[in-house]
Amino acid sequence: MEYVSTSTYPDRLATFSGYWDDQEATARQLAAIGHVYDRPPLEAIEEGSRCSSCSNFVRRGLSARALEGDTGSYGESFEIFQFHRPHCIRLQVRIPLEPQATFGGLYGGFRMQEMRSRWERKIQPQIAQTSRFHVGQTSSLFSLPTELRLQIYSMILPSLDHVTEIVPINRDSSRVVTRTGQEKTGPRDLTKSNLLRTCRAIHNEALDILYTNRTYRFANAKTLYLFLRAIGRAGRDLLGQIDVYCGSREDAITFALLSTCPKLRAMTIRLPRPKLIFPRSPIWLVDGVACLLFLSGLEDVRFGDCGSNFPHYLNDPKDDAALIRRELTRPKWSPGNIRWVDGYLDL
Protein backbone atom coordinates (compact mmCIF):
# COMPACT_ATOMS: atom_id res chain seq x y z
CA MET A 1 0.00 0.00 0.00
CA GLU A 2 1.37 3.40 -0.97
CA TYR A 3 2.13 5.72 1.94
CA VAL A 4 0.37 9.07 1.87
CA SER A 5 1.70 11.88 4.02
CA THR A 6 -0.94 13.49 6.24
CA SER A 7 1.30 15.95 8.06
CA THR A 8 -0.21 19.05 6.46
CA TYR A 9 -3.70 20.34 5.81
CA PRO A 10 -3.48 19.90 2.00
CA ASP A 11 -2.30 16.30 2.49
CA ARG A 12 -5.16 15.48 4.84
CA LEU A 13 -7.74 17.17 2.64
CA ALA A 14 -6.54 15.19 -0.37
CA THR A 15 -7.61 11.93 1.32
CA PHE A 16 -11.25 13.07 1.20
CA SER A 17 -11.14 13.96 -2.52
CA GLY A 18 -13.61 11.95 -4.56
CA TYR A 19 -15.23 10.44 -1.47
CA TRP A 20 -16.81 13.41 0.37
CA ASP A 21 -17.56 15.73 -2.55
CA ASP A 22 -21.21 16.02 -1.48
CA GLN A 23 -20.13 17.12 2.01
CA GLU A 24 -17.24 19.40 1.12
CA ALA A 25 -17.64 21.73 4.10
CA THR A 26 -17.46 18.80 6.53
CA ALA A 27 -14.40 17.33 4.81
CA ARG A 28 -12.51 20.64 4.88
CA GLN A 29 -13.24 21.17 8.56
CA LEU A 30 -12.24 17.62 9.43
CA ALA A 31 -8.94 18.01 7.60
CA ALA A 32 -8.35 21.30 9.44
CA ILE A 33 -8.67 19.65 12.86
CA GLY A 34 -6.33 16.80 11.90
CA HIS A 35 -8.62 14.12 10.45
CA VAL A 36 -8.16 12.03 7.32
CA TYR A 37 -10.74 10.01 5.42
CA ASP A 38 -10.77 6.45 6.73
CA ARG A 39 -11.24 3.95 3.92
CA PRO A 40 -12.81 0.94 5.62
CA PRO A 41 -12.59 -2.62 4.30
CA LEU A 42 -15.46 -3.82 2.15
CA GLU A 43 -17.09 -5.68 5.03
CA ALA A 44 -17.15 -2.58 7.25
CA ILE A 45 -20.53 -1.00 7.89
CA GLU A 46 -19.38 2.41 9.04
CA GLU A 47 -17.60 5.10 7.05
CA GLY A 48 -15.98 8.13 8.56
CA SER A 49 -12.69 9.84 9.38
CA ARG A 50 -9.85 9.23 11.77
CA CYS A 51 -7.54 11.62 13.60
CA SER A 52 -4.07 11.44 12.08
CA SER A 53 -2.50 11.81 15.53
CA CYS A 54 -4.58 9.83 18.03
CA SER A 55 -6.47 7.59 15.54
CA ASN A 56 -9.86 8.36 17.08
CA PHE A 57 -12.59 7.32 14.61
CA VAL A 58 -15.80 9.33 14.02
CA ARG A 59 -18.66 8.20 11.81
CA ARG A 60 -19.40 10.35 8.79
CA GLY A 61 -22.97 11.12 9.80
CA LEU A 62 -21.96 12.42 13.21
CA SER A 63 -19.31 14.68 11.68
CA ALA A 64 -21.75 16.14 9.16
CA ARG A 65 -24.30 16.77 11.89
CA ALA A 66 -21.77 18.57 14.06
CA LEU A 67 -19.90 20.51 11.36
CA GLU A 68 -22.70 21.41 8.95
CA GLY A 69 -25.83 21.12 11.06
CA ASP A 70 -27.94 23.78 12.72
CA THR A 71 -25.85 25.77 15.21
CA GLY A 72 -28.83 25.87 17.56
CA SER A 73 -28.43 22.14 18.30
CA TYR A 74 -24.67 22.18 18.85
CA GLY A 75 -24.99 20.82 22.38
CA GLU A 76 -26.62 17.63 21.16
CA SER A 77 -24.19 17.37 18.24
CA PHE A 78 -21.10 17.11 20.45
CA GLU A 79 -22.48 15.31 23.50
CA ILE A 80 -22.25 11.78 22.15
CA PHE A 81 -18.74 11.80 20.68
CA GLN A 82 -15.42 13.59 20.48
CA PHE A 83 -13.20 14.15 17.43
CA HIS A 84 -10.05 13.32 19.42
CA ARG A 85 -8.97 11.18 22.31
CA PRO A 86 -8.13 12.98 25.57
CA HIS A 87 -4.73 14.67 25.49
CA CYS A 88 -4.46 14.42 21.69
CA ILE A 89 -2.09 17.05 20.36
CA ARG A 90 -4.71 18.05 17.75
CA LEU A 91 -6.94 19.47 20.48
CA GLN A 92 -4.86 22.62 20.04
CA VAL A 93 -7.00 23.42 16.99
CA ARG A 94 -10.30 24.47 18.49
CA ILE A 95 -13.83 24.03 17.19
CA PRO A 96 -15.82 27.06 18.41
CA LEU A 97 -19.11 25.15 18.69
CA GLU A 98 -17.82 22.41 20.98
CA PRO A 99 -19.29 22.95 24.46
CA GLN A 100 -15.86 23.17 26.07
CA ALA A 101 -14.79 25.78 23.50
CA THR A 102 -18.00 27.80 23.66
CA PHE A 103 -18.39 27.80 27.42
CA GLY A 104 -14.93 26.99 28.73
CA GLY A 105 -12.19 29.30 29.82
CA LEU A 106 -11.90 31.96 32.46
CA TYR A 107 -15.21 33.69 31.79
CA GLY A 108 -17.71 31.26 30.36
CA GLY A 109 -17.20 27.99 32.25
CA PHE A 110 -19.36 28.79 35.26
CA ARG A 111 -22.35 29.49 32.99
CA MET A 112 -22.19 26.20 31.09
CA GLN A 113 -25.12 24.46 32.75
CA GLU A 114 -27.26 27.59 32.72
CA MET A 115 -26.79 28.24 28.99
CA ARG A 116 -27.17 24.57 28.04
CA SER A 117 -30.53 24.46 29.86
CA ARG A 118 -31.71 27.52 27.95
CA TRP A 119 -30.80 25.94 24.63
CA GLU A 120 -32.55 22.69 25.52
CA ARG A 121 -35.75 24.57 26.30
CA LYS A 122 -35.56 26.36 22.97
CA ILE A 123 -35.09 23.23 20.87
CA GLN A 124 -38.40 22.57 19.12
CA PRO A 125 -39.43 19.93 16.58
CA GLN A 126 -38.79 21.07 13.04
CA ILE A 127 -41.91 22.63 11.55
CA ALA A 128 -42.88 20.92 8.32
CA GLN A 129 -42.81 23.11 5.26
CA THR A 130 -46.39 24.02 4.39
CA SER A 131 -48.14 25.38 1.36
CA ARG A 132 -47.20 28.93 2.35
CA PHE A 133 -44.26 28.70 -0.02
CA HIS A 134 -46.62 27.91 -2.86
CA VAL A 135 -48.92 30.72 -1.78
CA GLY A 136 -46.00 33.17 -1.75
CA GLN A 137 -44.98 32.29 -5.27
CA THR A 138 -48.51 32.89 -6.55
CA SER A 139 -48.81 36.25 -4.77
CA SER A 140 -49.31 39.39 -6.86
CA LEU A 141 -45.90 40.50 -5.59
CA PHE A 142 -44.30 38.14 -8.08
CA SER A 143 -46.10 39.81 -10.97
CA LEU A 144 -43.83 42.83 -10.42
CA PRO A 145 -40.46 43.10 -12.21
CA THR A 146 -37.57 41.59 -10.28
CA GLU A 147 -35.80 44.96 -9.98
CA LEU A 148 -38.87 46.47 -8.29
CA ARG A 149 -39.18 43.53 -5.90
CA LEU A 150 -35.52 43.92 -4.90
CA GLN A 151 -36.12 47.62 -4.24
CA ILE A 152 -39.03 46.73 -1.98
CA TYR A 153 -36.91 44.18 -0.11
CA SER A 154 -34.13 46.74 0.42
CA MET A 155 -36.64 49.11 2.04
CA ILE A 156 -37.88 46.40 4.41
CA LEU A 157 -34.63 44.68 5.36
CA PRO A 158 -32.59 46.22 8.21
CA SER A 159 -30.21 48.91 7.02
CA LEU A 160 -26.56 47.78 7.14
CA ASP A 161 -23.41 49.85 6.81
CA HIS A 162 -21.01 49.27 3.93
CA VAL A 163 -18.66 47.79 6.56
CA THR A 164 -20.75 45.81 9.03
CA GLU A 165 -19.17 44.45 12.19
CA ILE A 166 -20.41 41.09 13.45
CA VAL A 167 -20.13 40.27 17.17
CA PRO A 168 -21.35 37.52 19.54
CA ILE A 169 -24.54 38.32 21.42
CA ASN A 170 -22.50 37.92 24.60
CA ARG A 171 -19.04 36.68 25.44
CA ASP A 172 -19.97 32.99 25.81
CA SER A 173 -22.67 32.69 23.18
CA SER A 174 -22.62 30.88 19.84
CA ARG A 175 -25.10 33.39 18.36
CA VAL A 176 -23.89 36.45 16.47
CA VAL A 177 -25.46 39.80 15.54
CA THR A 178 -24.35 43.06 14.00
CA ARG A 179 -22.63 45.53 16.31
CA THR A 180 -25.44 48.01 15.64
CA GLY A 181 -28.05 45.43 16.56
CA GLN A 182 -26.25 44.52 19.78
CA GLU A 183 -26.01 48.15 20.89
CA LYS A 184 -29.57 49.08 19.91
CA THR A 185 -31.82 50.03 22.81
CA GLY A 186 -35.58 50.17 23.04
CA PRO A 187 -38.17 48.06 21.23
CA ARG A 188 -37.12 46.16 18.12
CA ASP A 189 -39.04 45.97 14.87
CA LEU A 190 -39.09 42.20 14.30
CA THR A 191 -41.08 42.49 11.06
CA LYS A 192 -37.94 43.53 9.20
CA SER A 193 -35.82 40.56 10.18
CA ASN A 194 -38.71 38.18 9.43
CA LEU A 195 -38.86 39.07 5.74
CA LEU A 196 -36.46 36.25 4.90
CA ARG A 197 -38.83 33.78 6.56
CA THR A 198 -41.83 34.75 4.45
CA CYS A 199 -41.33 32.12 1.76
CA ARG A 200 -38.50 30.37 -0.02
CA ALA A 201 -38.83 32.46 -3.20
CA ILE A 202 -38.58 35.78 -1.32
CA HIS A 203 -35.74 34.42 0.82
CA ASN A 204 -33.69 33.48 -2.24
CA GLU A 205 -34.28 36.85 -3.94
CA ALA A 206 -33.69 39.05 -0.89
CA LEU A 207 -30.68 37.23 0.50
CA ASP A 208 -28.34 38.66 -2.13
CA ILE A 209 -29.03 42.20 -0.83
CA LEU A 210 -27.38 41.34 2.48
CA TYR A 211 -24.07 40.35 0.88
CA THR A 212 -23.63 42.36 -2.33
CA ASN A 213 -21.03 45.16 -2.04
CA ARG A 214 -20.81 44.82 1.73
CA THR A 215 -17.81 43.95 3.91
CA TYR A 216 -18.36 42.00 7.12
CA ARG A 217 -15.80 42.63 9.85
CA PHE A 218 -14.84 40.21 12.65
CA ALA A 219 -12.74 40.73 15.76
CA ASN A 220 -11.49 37.13 15.68
CA ALA A 221 -11.70 33.89 13.70
CA LYS A 222 -14.14 32.36 16.18
CA THR A 223 -16.76 35.02 15.43
CA LEU A 224 -16.23 34.56 11.69
CA TYR A 225 -16.75 30.81 12.10
CA LEU A 226 -19.98 31.31 14.04
CA PHE A 227 -21.16 33.72 11.34
CA LEU A 228 -20.36 31.27 8.52
CA ARG A 229 -22.30 28.58 10.34
CA ALA A 230 -25.22 30.91 11.07
CA ILE A 231 -25.70 32.05 7.45
CA GLY A 232 -25.60 28.46 6.18
CA ARG A 233 -24.68 27.25 2.74
CA ALA A 234 -26.98 29.78 1.04
CA GLY A 235 -25.21 32.70 2.74
CA ARG A 236 -21.74 31.28 2.17
CA ASP A 237 -22.53 30.99 -1.53
CA LEU A 238 -23.03 34.79 -1.65
CA LEU A 239 -20.43 36.13 0.79
CA GLY A 240 -18.01 38.38 -1.09
CA GLN A 241 -15.93 40.54 1.29
CA ILE A 242 -14.59 40.09 4.85
CA ASP A 243 -12.24 41.80 7.27
CA VAL A 244 -10.91 39.48 9.99
CA TYR A 245 -8.46 39.59 12.89
CA CYS A 246 -6.40 36.38 12.71
CA GLY A 247 -3.94 34.57 14.95
CA SER A 248 -6.10 32.35 17.17
CA ARG A 249 -6.58 28.62 17.69
CA GLU A 250 -9.79 28.76 15.63
CA ASP A 251 -8.02 30.00 12.48
CA ALA A 252 -7.65 26.57 10.85
CA ILE A 253 -11.25 25.40 10.96
CA THR A 254 -12.52 28.91 10.18
CA PHE A 255 -10.44 29.36 7.03
CA ALA A 256 -11.27 25.78 6.00
CA LEU A 257 -14.97 26.65 6.09
CA LEU A 258 -14.32 30.04 4.47
CA SER A 259 -12.81 28.26 1.47
CA THR A 260 -16.31 26.97 0.64
CA CYS A 261 -17.45 30.53 -0.19
CA PRO A 262 -17.28 30.59 -4.02
CA LYS A 263 -17.89 34.34 -4.41
CA LEU A 264 -15.35 35.52 -1.84
CA ARG A 265 -13.35 38.19 -3.68
CA ALA A 266 -11.92 40.61 -1.10
CA MET A 267 -10.27 40.02 2.26
CA THR A 268 -8.55 42.23 4.80
CA ILE A 269 -6.21 40.27 7.08
CA ARG A 270 -5.18 41.58 10.49
CA LEU A 271 -2.38 39.40 11.87
CA PRO A 272 -0.69 40.62 15.08
CA ARG A 273 2.76 39.23 14.28
CA PRO A 274 5.25 40.27 11.58
CA LYS A 275 5.78 36.73 10.19
CA LEU A 276 3.45 33.87 9.35
CA ILE A 277 5.42 31.18 11.18
CA PHE A 278 8.27 31.31 13.67
CA PRO A 279 10.62 28.49 14.80
CA ARG A 280 8.89 25.68 16.71
CA SER A 281 5.44 27.05 15.99
CA PRO A 282 2.62 25.03 17.61
CA ILE A 283 0.32 22.88 15.52
CA TRP A 284 -2.62 25.26 15.81
CA LEU A 285 -0.55 28.07 14.29
CA VAL A 286 0.86 25.95 11.45
CA ASP A 287 -2.54 24.52 10.53
CA GLY A 288 -4.10 27.98 10.69
CA VAL A 289 -1.55 29.31 8.20
CA ALA A 290 -1.97 26.26 5.95
CA CYS A 291 -5.75 26.72 5.81
CA LEU A 292 -5.36 30.45 5.14
CA LEU A 293 -2.95 29.82 2.25
CA PHE A 294 -5.32 27.24 0.78
CA LEU A 295 -7.80 30.02 -0.07
CA SER A 296 -7.74 31.04 -3.73
CA GLY A 297 -9.54 33.08 -6.37
CA LEU A 298 -9.52 36.39 -4.46
CA GLU A 299 -9.13 39.66 -6.33
CA ASP A 300 -8.22 42.01 -3.47
CA VAL A 301 -6.08 41.05 -0.45
CA ARG A 302 -5.16 43.75 2.07
CA PHE A 303 -3.46 43.90 5.45
CA GLY A 304 -4.85 46.00 8.30
CA ASP A 305 -3.34 47.22 11.55
CA CYS A 306 -4.05 45.39 14.79
CA GLY A 307 -4.33 48.29 17.20
CA SER A 308 -1.88 50.03 19.47
CA ASN A 309 -1.22 46.85 21.49
CA PHE A 310 0.39 45.20 18.45
CA PRO A 311 2.64 47.71 16.67
CA HIS A 312 4.46 44.88 14.84
CA TYR A 313 1.90 43.28 12.57
CA LEU A 314 1.95 41.70 9.14
CA ASN A 315 1.81 44.37 6.44
CA ASP A 316 2.79 44.99 2.84
CA PRO A 317 6.54 45.70 3.15
CA LYS A 318 7.08 42.21 4.56
CA ASP A 319 7.83 39.17 2.39
CA ASP A 320 5.16 37.02 4.05
CA ALA A 321 2.49 39.53 3.06
CA ALA A 322 3.51 39.18 -0.57
CA LEU A 323 3.38 35.38 -0.22
CA ILE A 324 -0.16 35.51 1.15
CA ARG A 325 -1.33 37.84 -1.61
CA ARG A 326 0.25 35.61 -4.25
CA GLU A 327 -1.39 32.46 -2.92
CA LEU A 328 -4.84 33.92 -2.26
CA THR A 329 -5.07 35.60 -5.66
CA ARG A 330 -4.06 32.57 -7.70
CA PRO A 331 -6.84 31.17 -9.94
CA LYS A 332 -9.63 29.40 -8.08
CA TRP A 333 -8.74 25.82 -7.10
CA SER A 334 -5.37 25.95 -8.89
CA PRO A 335 -2.49 24.16 -7.09
CA GLY A 336 -0.68 26.20 -4.48
CA ASN A 337 2.97 27.18 -4.75
CA ILE A 338 3.84 26.46 -1.13
CA ARG A 339 6.46 23.86 -0.26
CA TRP A 340 6.07 22.01 3.02
CA VAL A 341 8.89 20.16 4.75
CA ASP A 342 8.07 17.80 7.63
CA GLY A 343 4.77 19.53 8.15
CA TYR A 344 6.21 23.05 8.23
CA LEU A 345 6.18 25.87 5.71
CA ASP A 346 9.46 26.18 3.86
CA LEU A 347 10.09 29.89 3.38
Automatic annotation (TrEMBL):
Any single Pfam family the record assigns to this protein = DUF7730
- What InterPro entries does the annotation carry? AN11006-like, DUF7730
Can you name this protein? DUF7730 domain-containing protein
User: Start and end of every DUF7730 domain?
Assistant: 137-226
Q: Which organism is it from?
A: Salinomyces thailandicus
